[in-house]
Every structure is written in structure tokens, then in C-alpha cells.
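Appendix C. Worked example: Protein tyrosine phosphatase
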Amino acid sequence: MSRPAGKASLRRKPHVLFMGPTNSARTQMAEAYGRDLLADLVEVRSAGMAASDLDPRTRQVLQTDGIDTNGLYTKIVDPNLLDWADLVVTLCADTHRLKLQEQESFVHKNWSMEDPARLAKGPDDLAPYLQARDDIKRRVRQFSNSIRLMHR
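Step 2, the predicted output written as C-alpha cells:
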């Protein structure tokens, strides 16, 4: 069911889509922390512009922080998902790579960050994944705090 452009339903939680070039690391972390820290405030999903497998290092660093990774799987952005979203948060250093079509139905924000897979010095290097995890967790927590302040 489509809604008028720019009009979020006041009878439901806002919809947040975390999006990136692939849906293998950063966006999955954002979805996981979103579900953990924002579940009472918004509905959260993630997707990528291209198909990819969930990076096992992503799952590993989330689990070491006590985050449930069940239900995390890679998804590709489609028009229905963009129509679903009220806020699209892209997680990449260069948003031009995403070729995201701006729409009146959602607000777009970018969290500029490098792909931990490109920064890793090998398949066992978790350092860039831990850094990305901590940065994303901090940003999601700040987002959560901002929403909670608006609800006071």
C-alpha cells in the first residue's frame, strides 16, 4: 500500500533503512544495533545496491558485543523497500557510488565510513570491523537518544 509522498503514517513506527553498496558489513551492523537500541521507536531494515554474502567477521564482532545475529541476511534494495522507508541512512565514504534516487517519500542521511573489508589486512583481521562496529553503535545510540528527546 502506497502512501502520499512525504507523508509518514502517524499510526505506525517510522521506518529506517540502512543502505550501502553491498549488505555485507556496515549496513548489517547498523540493522543489528538498530533492532537492539531502537526497537521500541522505529522499524529497521538494511539492504545493499548489489548482492553479497554476509561477511563472517561482521557476525563475529556483533556476537562478541552480545548482539543477536539471528535473522541477519543480505538483501538488495528494490523500489518497494525505498517506498517503505521514511529515512534512508547510507553507510559509505562515497554516496555517488550508490546512485540513490532521491525521493520525496524519504529523508536521506549519510554516515560516511570506509568499508572494513577494504581496510582489513587479511581474512582474519578484525580491527577494521571492530572500529566500524563501535562507530556504528555510537551513531545508532546517538540517533536513539535524539528520538527519545523528541518524545519527551
